[in-house]
Amino acid sequence: MRLDQKDIQILKLLQNNARLSNKELAVELDIAPSTCHERLKKLTKSNFFKAFNASLNLEKLGFNIEVLIRVRLKKHEREVVNSFIQKLHTLKGIVRFYHLAGETNFMLHVAVENPNTLRSFILDELSDFKYIDNIESSIIYHNKCLHNLSYTNVIE
């Protein structure tokens, strides 16, 4: 499916605020609500949306420290990788994780209450996985999604 400018506007608007109603989108796009609804249905059916999520204020929830943790495994075999992913699903504090190619096998975005919780997460929870070769952590000072994607490759 190729997108036109109105479809791209819908994607951009919802990317910045997924709570916009169909009526609000239609007003913003200067089209009829029924037309907007049909476009939304088409975009949804064509899987342009993975999910509609709420971006939470982690600090307000008591998670005062956000960290990126790079993990390198001793072995990068399917069984080890799958086992590590299963382990990640049991750990509290992981906001999101990425399985990567290259020097770093996994990047974890972790939110914790304080430095002691972070220390415990790394030393007691994460490090007990026997196939970990290296762990490095970096505190996140600022976390903001910019939504600056270019959609020129999908325009009609």
Describe the 3D structure.
This protein has helices at residues 5-16, 22-29, 33-45, 78-90, 115-126; strands at residues 65-73, 94-99, 106-112, 132-139. It is of the alpha+beta class. The chain has two domains: 5-53, Winged helix-like DNA-binding domain superfamily/Winged helix DNA-binding domain (Arc Repressor Mutant, subunit A), CATH 1.10.10; 65-139, Lrp/AsnC effector binding domain/regulation of amino acid metabolism (RAM) domain (Alpha-Beta Plaits, 2-Layer Sandwich), CATH 3.30.70.920. The chain has a four-stranded antiparallel β-sheet. Helix 2 crosses helix 3 (33-45). The chain is elongated and about 55 Å long. The termini are close together. The mean pLDDT is 91.
Features:
Alpha-Beta Plaits, 4-stranded antiparallel sheet, elongated, alpha+beta, 37% helix, 4 strands, Arc Repressor Mutant, subunit A, single chain, 19% strand, 5 helices, 156 residues
Class based on secondary structure composition and strand pairing: alpha+beta
Order of helices and strands: HHHEHEEHE
Number of domains: 2
Query: Based on the structure given, which CATH architecture of the largest domain is correct?
Result: 2-Layer Sandwich
CATH topology of the largest domain: Alpha-Beta Plaits
What would you call the shape?
elongated
Q: What kind of sheet is the major sheet?
A: 4 strands, antiparallel
Name the CATH homologous superfamily of the largest domain: Lrp/AsnC effector binding domain/regulation of amino acid metabolism (RAM) domain
Distance between the termini: 9 Å
Poorly predicted spans: none
What's the CATH first level of the largest domain? Answer: Alpha Beta
